[in-house]
Description:
This protein is globular. By secondary structure, the chain is α/β, with parallel strands linked by helices. Strands 4-10-9-8-7-5-6 form a 7-stranded mixed sheet, with helices on both faces. A 4-stranded mixed sheet has the order 1-2-3-13. A two-stranded antiparallel sheet has the order 11-12. Helix 2 (75-87) packs antiparallel against helix 9, helix 3 runs parallel beside helix 9 (296-311) and helix 11 packs across helix 12 (390-410). The chain is built from 12 helices and 13 strands. The structure holds 4'-deoxy-4'-aminopyridoxal-5'-phosphate. The site of 4'-deoxy-4'-aminopyridoxal-5'-phosphate (PMP) has 12 residues, from helix 4.
Amino acid sequence: DMNSYKKSLSLFKRAAKVIPCGIYGHFSPAHLIISTAYPFYTARAKGAHFWDVDGNEFIDYMCAYGPMVLGYCHEKVEAAARAEYARGSCVTGASPLMVELAEYMTELVSGMKWAFFAKNGGDATNYAAMIARAATGRKKIVLINGGYHGVQPWMQSPAHAGVMKEDHSNYIRIGWNDFDAFKRVVSEHPGEIAGFMATPYHHPVFHDSELPADGYWKQVESLCRKEGIVLIIDDVRCGFRVDMAGSHNYFGFQPDLVCFCKAIANGHPISALMGTDAMKKTVAEVFQTGSYWFSSAPMAAALACLKELKRINAPGKMRATGEKLTSGLADAASSHGYHMAVSGMPSMPYVRITDDESQTLHQEWCAECTLMGAYFAAHHNWFISCAHTDKDIKKTLDIADKAFKIIKKRAGR
Ligand code: PMP
């Protein structure tokens, strides 16, 4: 039976009166292209599943857009957070857990000798840009076209409301995998480039993901070293879904600063900036803090989450699950005469039906899958978790097959 979203819609109507645009940001229905196919409000979640306020159940392939990695309400992580909340989490004075977490993460992540904790991914990326400037005494940061780092004015499109052209005056955007463009920018701005910030691989919205070309990161790294440019990796989305030692370890290079968030604590609010010894003195001089940044319960959750991810070799497990899902979907597509392009890492696949340039077919197929209980966004990479089981994948492939039949019939093929 197809889902109905009566309660979601009525809550959304109430929300529109008291919350600007009802639901903002990445959860906004405005981003769900066929929004009538998606629930807006969630009642509860467990493992790889969630239930909406109308009682519909979904196998979740968005994982809260990344934070869920071990499964919702994971007992080890929740027990660690609960115990810390019972002891007092947001208190005057830092927690010893903060030291323990920094020690654990510096052991875990390749080449990173210190950790600094905040709340959101954008806290870490914004701080990284400040540190690059403080360390070099230079102004400009090089970024990648289509790269997302958060919601500070400099991270948003200059076309967005509230963003001024001046907010972008010290940022230069170049194409992904285009080392020559980086070289050109460096020679056109001698002694002005403070930092180069990019994700470990390119995962923009509405487009296929692109892995680094052979040698790309080594070339970027050596030019940064030669020119004294701070190399910043935004591992907010990929971190711990690709490699427990950081995605730079997987792709074989050494950044100066690395930003983590999403998968760090299975949904508990914490992000981290990590860096090399050479950066440590500068970091100590750049002021940054927040009301909740010392809360210890999310730190306890992060320790429990990272230890569990490591224990079960989470990146390997999610990779295998993602490969099973995407190869099954590609087979289902071809059995119905369609082609499905799969890109990015299998733990964060970007999937797209290529038979229709406008992407309408792909959007309709994602909508039909969601209406039958496999939650797929059409414009964004999906996320695999350690909680997705073979049974979930099998059920998802059945749903996918039915959805192909529906869109095929509708298109009169
Ligand atoms: N960088 C990347 C690569 C991201 O995916 C995100 C969040 N989608 C951010 C930064 C910003 O993180 P936050 O929304 O937690 O500030």
